[in-house]
Amino acid sequence: MPDVLAVTGLRRAFRQGDATIEVLRGVNLRISAGEIVALLGPSGSGKSTLLQAVGLLEGGFEGSIRIAGEEAAKLDNDGRTRVRRDALGFVYQFHHLLPDFDAAENVVLPQLIRGAGAADARARATRLLTALGLGHRLTHRPSQLSGGEQQRVAVARALANRPALVLADEPTGNLDEATAEVVLAEFLRLVRGEGSAALIATHNERLAAKMDRVVRLSEGVLV
């Protein structure tokens, strides 16, 4: 299968006073189309830093990041925005839903930004949310939804534009254990059904075992 993501020699260091802290020390990672990979590591190991880099959300990195065949280092700001919009989906520990929009509207909006028609965007939002068990909650705002329901909306939003790669940073970390199990199972089922690849950061070994492959951050490199 072709690589959706190819990371080579990725480095990231931060200045802290007079000291330089190397968080990523030459990360190499390849993810094939449709593959779901768990990224394990304790808090502070650099999981979020790696996801920030792969998501083209901040600079200061050395090395190569190729997403769906495009080299990030060769992209200007507009190019990075286009790749984030067209090829990537994001799910965070906290849902970050727009509070003044209902569940369906939160999933419709990224499609409209990409240029989809309103009717098609609404139909896809309805299909995704229904697949996640929220067909009866389409017109509810985030404040009217439980934590698990809010995260399901965030999952649907991440998949709205049919991304090649979904990046998830502790996507169930803000949920109780039972709800986390259910939401992750639905997340994985939907990602596989959509044919997207995924890189999912977690510290939970049991949840990681449900994915296709596990990589671990250790002393700034993946093992």
TrEMBL record:
The protein's name: ABC transporter
Keyword Nucleotide-binding included in the entry's annotation: yes
GO cellular component: membrane protein complex; plasma membrane
GO BP: lipoprotein localization to outer membrane; protein localization to outer membrane
UniProt domain ABC transporter: residue ranges: 5-223
Family: Belongs to the ABC transporter superfamily. Macrolide exporter (TC 3.A.1.122) family.
InterPro entries for this protein: AAA+_ATPase, ABC_transporter-like_ATP-bd, ABC_transporter-like_CS, ABC_transpr_LolD-like, MacB-like_ATP-bd, P-loop_NTPase
Lineage, uppermost ranks: Bacteria, Pseudomonadati, Pseudomonadota, Alphaproteobacteria, Sphingomonadales
Entry's transmembrane regions: none
